[in-house]
Design goal:
Length: about 200
């Protein structure tokens, strides 16, 4: 396999890394992305995302591929990948369960939910089931505090107001190949009528 030195001095194989490579189609897509931003650094985010979609994670070797492809220092790509928890820096299970244990969720049973999942899956937070189906993680506030306790599934759907029964249902859905419905979070509506009544007034 031929070797090439990138600008940051690393000696790389023809495709930039020994284990991972982008397809020709992906490289063409990356070229289009580069035309949409004034600086190539900005393309790091979508290309990391593309890499995670393709390889399931952005471990250091995938980060190296991204750096090589964009001709950026590996330290830059590493800094971006490390900053966002949504990028998986190690291989994960097929489904990543991020259980929020921050204040509101904690007060509403977030730790109980986490413990229930640990027992149910037979793993601790931070671990992956031996069959590679589920990774369980403890997450910081996911911005759905009014719907606590809640969890997010693989950077996607939110499941709110968790109970053991609801957790069972979600696990069954995921195991059978279904995705739980996205539970949208409506903005609170302020009723002037209710406010007036609460203040002891009358609408008549
Ligand atoms: S504390 Fe759990 S979503 Fe905010």
């Amino acid at each position: 396999m031929s070797q090439k030195s990138s600008d940051n001095g690393a000696s790389l194989s023809q495709n930039g890394t020994s284990a991972y490579t982008f397809t020709k189609e992906q490289l063409a897509e990356i070229e289009v992305l580069k035309t949409k931003y004034p600086e190539v650094q900005a393309v790091t985010l979508p290309v990391l995302w593309m890499a995670q979609d393709t390889f399931g994670h952005v471990d250091p070797e995938v980060q190296r591929l991204v750096a090589y492809t964009l001709d950026l220092p590996e330290s830059h790509v590493h800094g971006v990948a490390e900053f966002y928890t949504q990028y998986f820096k190690t291989p994960k299970g097929k489904h990543v369960l991020d259980v929020c244990t921050c204040l509101s969720c904690h007060l509403c049973g977030g730790m109980d939910t986490l413990g229930y999942l640990e027992n149910k899956l037979g793993i601790k937070a931070g671990e992956t089931t031996p069959d590679g189906e589920f990774t369980l993680q403890e997450a910081e506030c996911l911005g759905a505090c009014g719907y606590a306790p809640m969890m997010q599934i693989t950077n996607d759907v939110y499941v709110n107001h968790l109970t053991p029964e609801k957790v069972d249902q979600v696990l069954d859905q995921l195991a059978s190949g279904d995705t739980p419905d996205f539970e949208s979070i409506p903005m609170p509506l302020v009723s002037t009528t209710s406010n007036n009544e609460a203040a002891g007034g009358s609408d008549e």
